[in-house]
Design a protein that fits this description.
The complex is a heterodimer of chains A (about 160) and B (about 170).
Chain A (H helix, E strand, L loop, with lengths): L3 E2 L6 E2 L5 E4 L5 E4 L2 H8 L11 H6 L24 H29 L3 H15 L7 H6 L20
Antiparallel strand pairs in A: 1-2, 3-4
Chain B lengths: L1 H42 L11 E4 L5 E9 L11 E9 L10 E8 L4 E2 L5 E4 L3 E5 L10 E5 L9 H6 E4 L1
Parallel strand pairs in B: 1-7, 8-9
Antiparallel strand pairs in B: 1-2, 2-3, 3-4, 4-7, 5-6
Classes of the chains: A mainly alpha (about 160), B alpha+beta (about 170).
Keywords (chain B): Ribonucleoprotein, Ribosomal protein, RNA-binding, rRNA-binding
GO cellular component, one term (chain B): mitochondrial large ribosomal subunit
GO molecular function, one term (chain B): large ribosomal subunit rRNA binding
Chain lengths: ~160, ~170
C-alpha cells in the first residue's frame, strides 16, 4: 500500500479517497478531494494558490530542506520484511515526528524574528499620523447635535386615479 | 372628454409600469442564467455513459480510426470503463483489417466519465477510446496505444493489458 501525494496541495491521499485523472500521455494526477480537483480543472497553478504546500515552499514559508524529510521519501524498491526492523520503525516514528515539529517551530520563529519590531514601528507611525482623528470624550459632550426635522409632502398623481 | 383622457393616460401608465415590472426580472434572470452556464462550462462538464451514437477513438492498429457505439452489451444506461460494446466503423485506414461500415465488438479502455475503483477512489481519462476485439474478447490488432486501466484484468481482458504500454 502506498500513500500518494495530492498533485495540487501535496497532502497525503489515503486509500479510497479522492479521484485520479489519467492524461493521454499516461501522466497520473491524483487529488485528495474535490476542492483540489476543481482547482485543477480551473487550470490554477498550485504555486500561485496560497493554501497549497507548493506556494508555501516557493515563498519560504515552510521548512524545505531537512533530514527528517528523508524518511518520507518515495522509494521504488520494496523493502524485505523483517520483524525487528518493523518494530524499530514503529518506535522511531513518534521520535522523528517530534524532532520535525520542533524544527518547524524553530523555522517559524526564525522567520518571524523581525516581525515584532516591524509591527511596533508601523503602529507608532499610524499613531503619529492620525492622532488628529481622535477627540477627547469631554469635547464630544460639549457639542450638541441638532437634527432638522422637515415634513415630507406626499406627492399625488391625479392622473393615476381613475 | 376629460374622463376619456384620464382613462387613456391611466392605461398608458399601467402599460408602462407593466413593461417595467416584466422587463426587470427578465433582465435579472438572463444575467443569472448566463453566469450559471459560464460557471458550469468552466468547472463541471457533464460526462455521460457510452451509449448508442457515442463516437469513440480506436487506439489499436486494427485499421479503424473512429467507431460509433450502436449497442452496449451490458448495463441499462450504457457502457462504462472496461465494458464491451458493439460498434460500427465510421472511419478506417484504406488497407486495414477492418473496413468502414462493418460492425465490430470493442472494449472501452478509456472513458472520460469517472469510474469507481475497488478501494472507493475514482479514475477518469481524457477521452473515450476503445480497442477492437472479436466476439470471444481477443483483440483484433497487435498493438494498444496510450494508458489503459488495470481493471481490465478483472474483466478478463489480460491480452489488452499485456499489449498496452502504460497501465494506470
Amino acid at each position: 500500500m502506498r500513500l500518494e501525494k495530492c498533485w495540487f496541495c501535496s497532502s497525503t491521499v489515503y486509500p479510497g479517497h479522492g479521484i485520479q485523472f489519467v492524461r493521454n500521455d499516461a501522466k497520473i494526477f491524483r487529488f485528495c478531494r474535490s476542492k483540489c480537483h476543481k482547482n485543477f480543472k480551473m487550470k490554477r497553478n498550485p504555486r500561485k494558490v496560497k493554501w497549497t504546500k507548493a506556494y508555501r515552499r516557493v515563498h519560504g514559508k515552510d521548512m524545505t530542506q531537512d533530514s527528517t524529510f528523508e524518511f518520507e521519501r518515495k522509494r521504488n524498491r520494496p523493502e524485505r520484511y523483517d520483524r525487528n526492523l518493523a518494530v524499530d520503525v514503529l518506535k522511531a516514528i513518534p521520535k522523528i515526528d517530534k524532532i520535525r515539529v520542533s524544527r518547524e517551530e524553530r523555522h517559524h520563529k526564525n522567520r518571524m524574528k523581525g516581525n515584532k519590531a516591524k509591527v511596533q514601528k508601523e503602529a507608532e507611525k499610524e499613531y503619529e499620523q492620525s492622532i488628529h482623528m481622535v477627540k477627547a470624550p469631554s469635547s464630544l459632550q460639549q457639542e450638541k447635535i441638532k437634527v432638522k426635522v422637515s415634513q415630507q409632502q406626499s406627492e399625488e398623481n391625479p392622473l393615476m386615479e381613475e | 372628454m376629460a374622463a376619456s383622457f384620464a382613462s387613456r393616460c391611466s392605461r398608458a401608465g399601467r402599460s408602462l409600469f407593466g413593461g417595467l415590472s416584466n422587463s426587470s426580472p427578465g433582465l435579472f434572470t438572463t444575467t443569472h442564467e448566463m453566469t450559471c452556464s459560464n460557471y458550469l462550462f468552466q468547472v463541471t462538464q457533464q460526462r455521460n455513459f457510452i451509449q448508442m451514437r457515442t463516437v469513440l477513438k480506436v487506439v489499436d492498429n486494427s485499421g479503424a480510426k473512429k467507431v460509433m457505439c450502436i449497442h452496449a452489451l451490458k448495463g441499462k444506461k450504457g457502457a462504462r470503463l472496461g465494458d464491451m460494446i458493439k460498434a460500427s466503423v465510421k472511419e478506417a485506414h484504406p488497407n486495414g483489417k477492418v473496413k468502414k461500415g462493418s460492425t465490430v465488438f470493442a472494449v472501452v479502455v478509456r472513458a472520460a466519465m469517472p469510474k469507481g475503483r475497488c478501494d472507493g477512489s475514482e479514475v477518469k481519462f481524457d477521452d473515450n477510446a476503445v480497442v477492437l476485439v472479436d466476439k470471444q474478447g481477443q483483440p483484433i490488432g497487435t498493438r494498444v496505444f496510450g494508458p489503459v486501466p488495470h481493471e481490465l484484468r478483472q474483466k478478463k481482458h489480460v491480452k489488452i493489458l499485456t499489449l498496452a504500454g502504460h497501465i494506470a
